[in-house]
């Protein structure tokens, strides 16, 4: 059987197996996402599997770059991807997308045992691809100047007079301090 026929058969099987499953998402006929764990679970993660042209004879591309995974450290992501890569090597030549998703579901606790949620959104590439080795590209972000929206500009203009000065008494905290001092002096 050709790789294309194998992919078509596996696609039909995945659609029938995961029909109605909110954790499964078909991004395209060759790319799938599966959320391991419930929506509110801090140890939940998302796996994306994309088939190559010659899949299942060649390994699929497994990624954890989804925004959903931003609270997972890169070390934990790399550990999960390494364990999934071992499962890929065992199942090479057979339809393995369902197997990989189920393997991840069965071993979720083991995968996430060292997980400590991080709260900074770091952009680190976490992809296993047969063509490229695992490397994290250097990302240079440009500092953006904060710009006000139309509504914010309008609100600011409404607070000031025609000269751009704030009206008398705009800082009510100072007014309260004065009243408090006068009250205490009596």
Automatic annotation (TrEMBL):
<protein>
    <submittedName>
        <fullName>RWD domain containing 4</fullName>
    </submittedName>
</protein>
<feature type="region of interest" description="Disordered">
    <location>
        <begin position="122"/>
        <end position="167"/>
    </location>
</feature>
<feature type="compositionally biased region" description="Polar residues">
    <location>
        <begin position="122"/>
        <end position="137"/>
    </location>
</feature>
<feature type="compositionally biased region" description="Basic and acidic residues">
    <location>
        <begin position="155"/>
        <end position="166"/>
    </location>
</feature>
<dbReference type="Pfam" id="PF05773">
    <property type="entry name" value="RWD"/>
</dbReference>
<feature type="domain" description="RWD">
    <location>
        <begin position="9"/>
        <end position="111"/>
    </location>
</feature>
<dbReference type="InterPro" id="IPR006575">
    <property type="entry name" value="RWD_dom"/>
</dbReference>
<dbReference type="InterPro" id="IPR042770">
    <property type="entry name" value="RWDD4"/>
</dbReference>
<dbReference type="InterPro" id="IPR016135">
    <property type="entry name" value="UBQ-conjugating_enzyme/RWD"/>
</dbReference>
């Amino acid at each position: 059987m050709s790789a294309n026929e194998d992919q078509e058969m596996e696609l039909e099987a995945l659609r029938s197996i995961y029909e109605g499953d909110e954790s499964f998402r078909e991004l395209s006929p060759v790319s799938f996402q599966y959320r391991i764990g419930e929506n509110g679970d801090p140890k939940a993660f998302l796996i994306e599997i994309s088939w190559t042209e010659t899949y299942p004879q060649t390994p699929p591309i497994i990624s954890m770059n989804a925004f959903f995974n931003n609270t997972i450290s890169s070390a934990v992501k790399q550990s999960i991807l390494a364990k999934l890569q071992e499962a890929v090597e065992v199942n090479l030549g057979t339809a393995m997308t369902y197997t990989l998703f189920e393997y991840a579901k069965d071993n979720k606790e083991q995968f996430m045992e060292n997980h400590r949620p991080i709260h900074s959104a770091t952009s680190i590439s976490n992809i296993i691809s047969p063509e490229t080795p695992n490397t994290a590209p250097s990302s240079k972000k440009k500092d953006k100047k904060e710009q006000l929206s139309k509504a914010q500009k309008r609100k600011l203009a409404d607070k000031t007079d025609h000269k751009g000065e704030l009206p008398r008494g705009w800082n009510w905290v100072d007014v309260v301090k004065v009243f408090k001092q006068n009250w205490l002096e009596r």
